[in-house]
């Protein structure tokens, strides 16, 4: 098996591949599934909006939910999912036309399921004669959906993407009326449940407290993947494509493995689509060719959407956005003024409006003088550069330069030049030429001062936080040693800190002995230590630096002694950590979901956040230990 994963169209992937590649989204998927079960018995509807930039996994999440609803006996008996095409809302100019698009997709869903009612529904739609702005069309379609839902005894689950484009499609003079009509649809039609997505951070029709739709959609934001999750996704991609060796490239404690994890995280920015692209690029020239070809196709498909967004901007706002798109870095107001030749004194108002509408966002600062702004949609920047004739995709250039050594890039260039001179079909020759240009640019950048500085920065960054922690622990030890009459809590802290210091210098045996002494103190002095200030933060350090069995002993001791409900919270955190990463295969995900299902809903987010923070810290500690071991080996070889 040597399958290819489509990095921008999860609709073409099988349910099995989508499940395999589900990383970092278990909590939100579980929450949505549980809410769907709850709403089966509810007399009201809670509609949802999933936010996140392009490539963050919104369509993937939609696919996961759609397939799970179809496969779950209880959900499939209660819901009929209707998954609209991503471009469906681009053709909408009224809520009635949106309903018509949903009805047509419903016909396709019924035909696929060999439902005999599909032909009758198609005939009823063909018989409709009202115009798209006619209120009668809206009412007729609402009645049609009521009848279809009643006939099947199911709620129609509408999966709709790009809610921002829907609002933009309403004519300015009719926008208020259409939004109010949409509100009536969401509040009065109990047989419809909408799950929508948007790449924008702000939608005035929803976010403004005075807007008609304010509070009508429950929102969740998909966060970027962490370094650990990127490693998990790489491994999952290896499983999905049958290329397990490539999937393990980010594993292991070696210096090369650490650098590769950091390179992917820095360049992908935690964006899953970019990680899938990186998985293809690491295959070398064939992989780069596949990415260049597929990325070009992706950018072409976005043309109608991006051109429409540009057309709706005022000329000066358009000048700001296009200047930002062509700039190699994020910009301050003064830098934008220099590129556009617009007066700086009026730029702030225009930039504020672009931020509010979701075109720009502050990258550093909170607005005003000195704030650095970025494009909210990184894909727009690539698309605009591509349309301006810049066929070399800079993210791929940077990735190649940081992933490969200069020697590897030189060898790849020799092979590519030989392939080009050997002759090929016109299309293949064009693509090979584009790949060659990417490798040439990558080698040039790798040899530049900027490229060398970026590589060194990535190498050095991963131990920085551990070094800071080391200094803080040393200071705490000095404080305890300075006390004339240290109490049980002070001795407890001292034993633990000594254990952490031993762990930081790689002395595992001494670290285990010290944590053992601290544990005995906890067991013998549990009543005195139960209310010790900062006990739970101390417990987090046990999670990070020691085998999880010690954390289990601590928690069991504290729970048995009648400690506060915080012990229960950390008990759930430990259970989540003990399941391992939720991306370690289907069984790992099932274990993770079972644990998460036992966590009370009000604690679920807190448990997830603490567990993720501990995972990241444990990973950094492992990296630090491998660096200590590497230095030790170098010193030994130098003395020999």
Explain what this protein looks like in three dimensions.
This protein is α/β, with parallel strands linked by helices. The chain is built from 33 helices and eight strands. The chain has a five-stranded parallel β-sheet with strand order 2-3-4-1-5, with helices on both faces. It has a three-stranded antiparallel β-sheet with strand order 6-8-7. β7 and β8 form a beta hairpin. The chain is globular. 36% of the residues are buried.
Beta-strand percent range: 5-15%
Proportion in helices: 55-70%
Rg, Å, rounded: 28 Å
What is the topology, as strand order, of the major beta sheet?
2-3-4-1-5
**How many H/I helices?**
33
Q: How does the helix and strand content classify structurally? A: alpha/beta
Mean of residue pLDDT values: 79
Give the low-pLDDT segments: none
Largest sheet: 5 strands, parallel
Number of DSSP E strands: 8
End-to-end Cα distance: 48 Å
What does this entry show, briefly?
With 640 residues, the protein is α/β, with parallel strands linked by helices. It is 67% helix and 6% strand.
Question: Top keywords for this entry?
Answer:
3-stranded antiparallel sheet, 5-stranded parallel sheet, 33 helices, single chain, 640 residues, alpha/beta, 67% helix
SSE layout and pairings?
Blueprint (H helix, E strand, L loop, with lengths): L14 H6 L5 H15 L6 E5 L6 H14 L1 H6 E5 L11 H18 L4 H10 L8 H18 L2 E6 L2 H7 L5 H14 L3 E7 L5 H4 L9 E5 L5 H15 L2 H4 L7 H14 L3 H10 L3 H17 L1 H9 L3 H12 L4 E2 H8 L3 H13 L3 E5 L7 E4 L2 H10 L6 H10 L2 H16 L4 H22 L1 H13 L2 H18 L6 H17 L3 H17 L1 H4 L5 H11 L2 H13 L4 H14 L7 H13 L2 H39 L1
